[in-house]
Amino acid sequence: QVQLAESGGGLVQAGGSLALSCAASGSTFSNYALGWFRQAPGLEREFVARISRSGDYRYYAGSVKGRFTISRDNAKNTLYLQTNSLKPEDTAVYYCAAGSFGTTRPTDYTYWGQGTQVTVSS
C-alpha cells in the first residue's frame, strides 16, 4: 500500500502559478505510475497529467498541455505538478493517484490522496 498526501493548493489570480506536491509513504514509490486528476463541483473527476515509474514518459490533457508540468522525485517519494498561466476554469480539487499502470482513467488508479483545493479568480 501507499499513502498519498497533496499540498500546495490555494487561491491565485488568473495568470498566476501554483506548485502542487504529493508526498508518498508506505510501499516503494518507484513501483507506481502516478497521475494528477481534478474535480470541479458538479463535474466528474478528470485526468490532468500522468508520469511513468521512471519519470521518462509524461502525458497531459489537452486543456493543460503547455501550462502544467508533471514531475517526480523517486528519492524523495514525491510527485509534483507545476501549474502556470492558470485560468478560472482550472478551479477544482486536485488529486494525486498511484497505480500499476499509467492511464488517463481514474478507475485504473488504486491509491488516492485527499485532494488540495485550487481556486483561480478572474
- Please provide the ordered H/E string of secondary-structure elements: EEEEEEEEEEE
Proportion of strand residues: over 45%
Radius of gyration: 13 Å
- Determine the number of helices (DSSP H or I, runs of at least 4 residues): 0
The helix content is under 10%
Task: Note down, in words, how this protein is organized.
This protein is mainly beta and 122 residues long. The protein has no helices and 11 strands. The protein has strands at 2-7, 10-13, 18-26, 33-39, 46-51, 58-60, 68-73, 78-83, 92-99, 111-112, 116-121. Strands 2, 4, 5, 6, 9, 10 and 11 form a 7-stranded mixed beta sheet that branches. The chain has a 4-stranded antiparallel beta sheet with strand order 1-3-8-7, with no helix packed on it. A hairpin with a 6-residue loop joins β4 (33-39) and β5. It is globular and about 40 Å long. The termini are far apart. The model has no long low-confidence stretch (mean pLDDT 96).
What is the topological layout?
Blueprint: E1 2-7, E2 10-13, E3 18-26, E4 33-39, E5 46-51, E6 58-60, E7 68-73, E8 78-83, E9 92-99, E10 111-112, E11 116-121
Parallel strand pairs: 2-11
Antiparallel strand pairs: 1-3, 3-8, 4-5, 4-9, 5-6, 7-8, 9-10, 9-11
